[in-house]
Structures are given as C-alpha cells and as structure tokens.
Amino acid sequence: MSLKQNKSPFRNEDEERMLNAKRKMAVAFVEPCLSVSTVNLAKWNIGSSLSYIINEDYSKVLKNNRDSLKPNKVVQIWLFRVQPNSQLGFALIKVID
To answer: How many whole angstroms from its chain centre is CA 6?
Structure first.
C-alpha cells in the first residue's frame, strides 16, 4: 500500500532520519475489523516520485479484512500519534461499501 504525502509532514525529524537511512519503521496499524497490528513503514523513491510504503505483514491485514478490502471499495488512511511517546500509527477506514 502506498501513501502519498500531502503538504504537511507527518513524520518527525527522528522518523525522517530513520526512513532516509533506508530503514523501515514499525508502526501501529488499526484495521477495519478493529484489530491492531504492527506493519512496517518505508520511504521509496520511484523515479521522480516519493512514496511512503506500508509493507511486510500487510498480507495479514488483507486476510483479516477480506470482506472490507475488495476491488472498488473506498478506504482512507488516517494518521494518529499515541501518547506519551507520540508514536506514529495509522488507521485504515472503510468509507463506502
């Protein structure tokens, strides 16, 4: 799953340094079925494009949510921070059936 960055940055300086060093970062991921899993976030340069990629263990997310994540379904990915350490997390929200 690829995430396109909007105008405001979603990661802090430490997270950006980690991603720039070609390392992946474990993030919390709330699935449509409301299970919370851990996936890896990576930064990829593809041609002249920059993408943030959720990879590894995403196949498990697809399996857990096979009824929600079918072709032509509309979903959103929301970003959140978990206190007290402001850890980055994402939630995958099904918008339209």
So the answer is: 14
**36 within some domain:** yes
Q: Cα(30)–Cα(50) distance, rounded to whole angstroms?
A: 24
Looking at residue 36, which CATH number applies to its domain? Answer: 2.40.330.10
Residue 8 within any structural domain of the chain: no
94 CB-contact burial (10 Å; exposed 0-12 / middle 13-18 / buried 19+): middle
Which domain does 22 fall in, by range? 13-94
Per-residue tens of pLDDT for the chain, all 97 residues: 555 555 556 778 888 888 888 788 888 999 888 889 888 888 888 888 888 888 777 778 888 888 778 888 888 989 998 888 888 899 998 887 6
Phi, psi of 7 (to 5 degrees): -65, -35
Helices and strands counted in the chain (H then E): 2, 6
Specify the amino acid at residue 37.
Answer: S
In this structure, is residue 54 part of a structural domain? yes
